[in-house]
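Changelog-linked ticket: S-adenosyl-L-homocysteine example.
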Amino acid sequence: MDYETLRKVMVEEQLISRGIKDKRVLDAMGKVPRHIFVEEALRSRAYGDYPLPIGEKQTISQPYMVALMTEALGLRGNENVLEIGTGSGYQSAVLAELCDRVYSVERIKSLAIKAREHLDSLKYMNVAIKIFDGTYGWIEYAPYDAVIVTAGAPEIPQSLIDQLAIGGRMVIPVGDEFSQVLVKVEKNRDGIKTTNICGCVFVKLVGNYGWKE
Ligand code: SAH
């Protein structure tokens, strides 16, 4: 399998053609070996235009969704980023290419362990993973210049707004299992401003300030 070619085609046909413009995001997604983050049996489909199962009833997001969310964070290279929902670790690797430090929280231990192994094998040393309920955020390293939530929340957890820096951006899918909206949150001195980006479908954010299991 020529994964590099598959990645190039993915960037052109799924990302550029649908309006992703940030060169750094396109370069990062052209570089990170997505196939490493899925099971061997699914590797030939890793660059397809869809999400894929990663075990524990969870999924790795469709490449376009990863690009859209990442672009909305407007990363320039020096940011401290919080990710909720490590899953496979693929989104974490894309972020690691684009900012200074990534703090990623995952509630399912087996997924966190696998993600850590894959990130280590690719030498992504600027990603820290914690096994915890991410609806609490990760207070020790706050404030964050950017926050990305990769599971659907009933509402935006206040702890994540609190841990966002003034001038920071957050992207989070909000809504129930069947209908969610990808929301961008910008925080300034006066409070927050929210903008709807598009409809989307994510697995549920399960936790104290999320959905009950
Ligand atoms: N970013 C991931 C997508 C993972 S799917 C990737 O690139 O593969 C969403 C993940 O969020 C799942 O792994 C799920 O277990 C996790 N999750 C759901 N609720 C959570 C919570 N409260 N805290 C941390 N992780 C959570």
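Closing comment: Example verified and attached. DSSP finds six helices and nine strands in the chain. Helices lie at 3-15, 23-31, 63-72, 90-98, 109-121, 158-162.
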